[in-house]
Amino acid sequence: MKPGVRSLGVAESYHATASGEDETTSTLAGVVTRASRVADGFVFGTCTVGGTDVSDAIIDLGKRLDREDVRYVFISGIALSWYNIVDMHRISDALDRPVVSVTFEESDGLGAALESEFSGEELERRREIYRRQPARHELAVNDQTVFVRNVGIAEDEARDVVRAFTPEGGRPEPLRVARLAARAGDEWRTANQTRDG
């Protein structure tokens, strides 16, 4: 892959407040990263912890960036912000880009967890979005294992893209930098809320 090829990586951060209560809003960071590891664009947003708005929030990040040179969208996980389920198909259609979700731990899926945390319409809504998502496949990257889902791109190309954007370790560079940015943004946002409150 050419070193100038760019992708948008999206990751989130939220934590418990000083009073011990969980945040109700999660900070999202979007980072444009070249395959050569150069970051050349940042955007921030929020979504609701335990909500169903993460796909809209990611679409908003991509549209606000308005970068025609971004070829791929990487998302860290499929269930952000306490089971705010990502709709990869919807994001791919809205941004007209292939979407690759990468997770880093083995899992039997979200079915049992969703059933233990939600019921009624809240459960069905999340379950319906989750069932529409593609199955994940295991991928060895730099002697580590990640789990990949892909929409708008063939599985073999998704494997190549993940490897091309992961020069070391097991976390693709767009997601590594987005995770750092989301944490810093969340700390800044929380500190300002505490000071203003």
Could you write a compact summary of the structure shown?
By secondary structure, the chain is α+β, with helices and mostly antiparallel strands.
Q: How does this structure look, described?
A:
Helix content is 38%, strand content 29%. It has 197 residues and is α+β, with helices and mostly antiparallel strands. It has helices at 54-65, 88-95, 111-117, 120-132, 155-164, 173-196; strands at residues 6-13, 25-34, 39-48, 70-76, 79-80, 84-85, 99-103, 137-141, 144-151. The protein has six helices and nine strands, in the order E-E-E-H-E-E-E-H-E-H-H-E-E-H-H. It has a seven-stranded mixed beta sheet, with helices on both faces. The protein has one domain: 2-Layer Sandwich (archaeoglobus fulgidus dsm 4304 fold), CATH 3.30.2170.10. Belongs to the UPF0215 family.
